[in-house]
Amino acid sequence: DIVMTQSPLSLPVTPGEPASISCRSSQSLLHSTGYNYLDWYVQKPGQSPQLLIYLGSNRASGVPDRFSGSGSGTDFTLKISRVEAEDVGVYYCMEPLQKYTFGQGTRLEIK
Amino acid sequence: QVQLQQSGPGLVKPSQTLSLTCDISGDSVSSNSVTWNWIRQSPSRGLEWLGRTWYRSKWYDEYAVSVKGRITIKPDTSKNQFSLQLSSVTPEDTAVYYCVRAGYHDSSDYRVFGYWGQGTLVTVSS
Prior knowledge:
The complex is a heterodimer of chains A (111) and B (126).
Chain A: E1 4-7, E2 10-13, E3 19-25, E4 39-43, E5 50-54, E6 58-59, E7 67-72, E8 75-80, E9 89-95, E10 101-102, E11 106-110
Parallel strand pairs in A: 2-11
Antiparallel strand pairs in A: 1-3, 3-8, 4-5, 4-9, 5-6, 7-8, 9-10, 9-11
Chain B: E1 3-7, E2 11-12, E3 18-25, E4 35-42, E5 46-55, E6 59-63, E7 71-76, E8 81-86, E9 95-104, E10 111-116, E11 120-124
Parallel strand pairs in B: 2-11
Antiparallel strand pairs in B: 1-3, 3-8, 4-5, 4-9, 5-6, 7-8, 9-10, 9-11
């Protein structure tokens, strides 16, 4: 089974500052199509998770361009260029290549 | 706009069967391009995919190894809904359960968990 490991697990950020979350998978997520099968979801307080990034680097509809995803194979990064108060929540990476395994989550909070 | 509305009891006794239903609006459970999933979330196990059902000329299902043998996900075409049954529950099955639609995003041919139900906290306790 693929294991997804995120870091850090807690991320206090000052508004306006950048933030970065790492996600590592125990197996390569590079599909034969050439795409990386890695998605990012965010769960805001009191809400169900929602899609943020798909195929490693594609922003979902309506996601602000301050969010970006990068990486390939086993190492991926979610970056927020300038954190805003509304970005508070728990961020999860997920692999849909095998059995939809999620990372442990990274809790982003405002300093 | 797709909406998923969950229903079911919030308290189940140990050894009994957990049953939840997900009503679908804005799509059909028999759609040929989506899958219908159940995912749960608990402090100890995080987000855990449990299984899915889908229709491609006939019905299919697939389950996580962790719950295989105890789980059934079934469509109900007459009510446009799908359900989760998890038998022989223990306190370890206490979690928030989500029904989730996996469908193509924008013009891609890649399915994402694009629509989630509101979540149902199910507590297993006597």
